[in-house]
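Slide 14.
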Amino acid sequence: MNYLKSLRVEQHGAISCVHLATPTMDTLTYLACEEAIASGSVEVREVSDAGDVNSLEVLNNSDQFIFMMDGDMLEGAKQTRVLNTSVFLAPRSRTVVPVSCVEQGRWHYTSRTFRGSRSVAPRSVRAAKSESVAYSLRTSGRHTANQSRVWNEVSSIDGAHNVNSPSLSLADTYEHLEKDIDALTRLFQGVPESNGFAILIGKQLLGIDIFNRRNICASYLPKVLRAVAIEAVHLDPDVPMPKPTEASFRAVDFMDRLSDIESELHPSVALGEETRFNDDMATGFQLTYENSLVHQSVMVLEKTGGG
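Slide 15: predicted structure.
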């Protein structure tokens, strides 16, 4: 993938963000999930009054395409959920989307519909989902995640930060760490010309997300940084950091090596198709629609130096 270009590296605390660009971008017009929910264009609700832990109903009442990202947190209704994969919704559509629960101790309504969140699920949760979704697609053709594994990851995060959540909610962990997360992420400015980013903690490359649109990339960057901050807030301030050139090289080189991973093509949840890859090096997918990239998500599983 030699098309990927590193534009600039921002480093604050233990986090490095490599801002990336592809030659082709902004070829599709659509809204992001949180914006669409806030405007009333999209309604997310339980599939029925009884509900289904691993499915939600999304009504796109607008004439626009809507993007929902893997790991998007949806709060409210009977319990907080996260998206199992990225979804590209058609205008004026109803779609049942696959989700995982990140609030194990609640199963009652606090609202009839879901609201968006300022955060996405942490990298460990997204990686656990991605690995099990890849297996599920191979064996059953469904975007199903291992719910027990997701709960274990959430419990581990809560425990690491001594969070006592009455409903075992990932959202409570974000709230508990809000001041530390804000202090660690508020200095990141982003790069308007970029449509992707790679994130490192110390010298460890964690993941890469690339979007079709620059404005969608800009809207998700703070959310992903908040998720990364959960892992970084209590690290030693003297953790070894890469030089900006080294961070850029790690990101671009890793994307080049993705071509060595065996991949499988699957129908997407809504519009488009997914190319899934999963091995000891990385897990993730590429969602495309009419030959245009919508979203590529890579979660690194191997040690790539340092950290």
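Speaker note: Helices lie at 33-39, 123-140, 147-160, 170-176, 178-185, 214-232, 244-257.
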